[in-house]
Amino acid sequence: MGYTDKVDTRKTYDPTSTDAWRKLTDLSKTVYEKGILEHFTDNPFRTSQYSISLNGLHVDYSKHLVSDEILDALNSLAEKSPLAELRDAIFSGTPINESEGRRVLHTALRNPDFPDGAIASSIATQFNRMTTIANRIRVGDWKGYDGKRIHSVVNIGIGGSDLGPKMVCEALREFAQPDIDMHFISNVDGEPIRSLLKQLDPTTTIFVVASKTFTTQETMVNAQVAIDWVSEKTGITEPLSTPHFLAVTAATDTAIERGIPANQILQFWDWVGGRYSLWSVIGLTICICIGQENFRTLLHGAREMDDHFLNAPLGKNLPVQLALLGIWYNNFLDIQSTAVIPYCERLGFLPTFLQQLDMESNGKRVSSHGVPLTYDSTPVTWGQTGTNGQHAFFQLLHQGTRFVPIDFIGVANDQLSDGKQHRILLANMLAQAAALMSGEAADSPEQEYPGNRPSTMILLNKLTPHSLGMLLALYEHKVFCQGAIWNINSFDQWGVELGKRLTSKVLDDQDRSGLDPSTLDLMDRLGF
Ligand code: F6P
Fold first, then answer.
1. Strand 152-156 vs strand 181-185: parallel, antiparallel, or unpaired?
2. Given Cys at both, which of 37, 383, 459, 466 links 339, Cβ 3.0 to 4.6 Å?
3. pLDDT at position 217 over 50
4. 38 in helix, strand or coil?
5. CB within 8 A of 165, min separation 6: which ones?
């Protein structure tokens, strides 16, 4: 069956009417009769059978509340869904973002052999422009208006135009250019940018205004603060025409209208969603930070995961298996949230990045054809690094009334750490996952650990551009698979629009119509 047939199928496809869904509902009724530990006793090969290794990335999902029968039913659910056809549609560029009438082509950004020549060539053009600019900044050839080399780069953007680059630059600090400081300004709160500007020299600073639409309020306001600051400090009346401002956008005309010269604008396209854009020229700051070769390696890592996703059988397909485990807990065991706990401080921004990826993609209440869902879509994603989280919220994870499936992420070898400390860090991660699963009986109920609490262990051999690329693509595809099975359009985000419109209304001095009494009262209190 081709994609077009499946599009029609999507109109009527409902995962709850599949045999697999019914079977999983039945299996969920008896799942707690056997603890996870007992499954290990029954099957001495469980660890290896429930693990997948892929070029430096190892994923162990044996500590889950699943049996072969449950996994078989979950895989059958995936088979009966439009997942495979939608996956092929993404990789070939067939439009699947129905509500916006767009293709979904972020994977083309990491595919040197993308078949559509026009798209491939415009990707290559922008990639070359980006690497040229980044190289010039890195070697000191991109000079400020008075001839000095650049030492500070400030990315001004929000959401996908901030979270990906910020998270990657932090994660790959080991590979960063030492004499260039990277800064990220996102919130419209005026404090961060003002505090930052006090530390910067306008003659050695560039601002990257990153916005797909080039209309996002926070970004435009912060960009204006930067423009005014450069103007005030240097006496230049049109700072945007100096080398101190670059724009990265899908709306090049708007950036030009705002006064940024065309040769200082890097372009991407409407077929790259904001939360999938770090692979595009939105990655300029990444490229400045870690250099062209490392950026390429990041893309190669993601590409390797793409190939795995495209070619591995469903039962051994990492994104598919992680997606199915999430669906098992979400739709059959009624969990409310999932946590991501990296045991690596440099991955500290990963949970926030994944929040946008997951919740903006699959936080939806209607199907891809606008029909209200009769089942739950994605749960809340949250997390922070271990061991810090252990001393904050792990109490709930061990003994709370709800259980929270966890992704533990560990890095086997870390050159930036010390051998002894790293061993302690990893020991904590292993111990927490083991304790959550095993539990412990006690004489007093307060001291009892119920156990049977599931987790996935994701191990990277090292934290490199390649392994990070693989990890991020793994999560992208996991989210995509869940959206396909839930029959959601994972690539729009209409839910953010109303709040934006009401912000304009609250800021409108002339017209307060349509605002509710509570909001009007609060506006008065705040001096609006
Ligand atoms: O409001 C949500 C959103 O549209 C995200 O999807 C996006 O990543 C972010 O805002 C920033 O948008 P832009 O890159 O257009 O400034």
1. parallel
2. 383
3. yes
4. helix
5. 155, 157, 184, 210, 278, 282, 283, 284, 285, 286
Q: DSSP of 154-210, one letter per residue?
A: EEE--GGGTHHHHHHHHHTGGGS-TT-EEEEE--S-HHHHHHHHHH--GGGEEEEEE
CATH of 116-290, one of 3.40.50.300, 3.40.1620.10, 3.40.50.10490, 3.30.420.40: 3.40.50.10490
Dump pLDDT digits (tens) for 109-168. Answer: 999 999 999 999 999 999 999 999 999 999 999 999 999 999 999 999 999 999 999 999
Of 97, 216, 220, 352, the residue with max ligand 1 atoms within 8 A of its CB, to mutate for a pocket test, comes to: 216
Give the residue among 125, 137, 268, 276 at the shortest CA–CA distance from 205: 137
Active-site pick, 11, 148, 500, 505: 500
Centre of ligand 1 to C-alpha 349, Å, is 18
Instruction: Check residue 8 and give its pLDDT.
Output: 59
Q: List CB contacts of 277: < 8 A, sequence separation 6 or more.
A: 106, 160, 161, 164, 212, 268, 283
Query: What tokens appear for 417 in the block?
Result: 């750490």
Tokens of 248: 């990265």
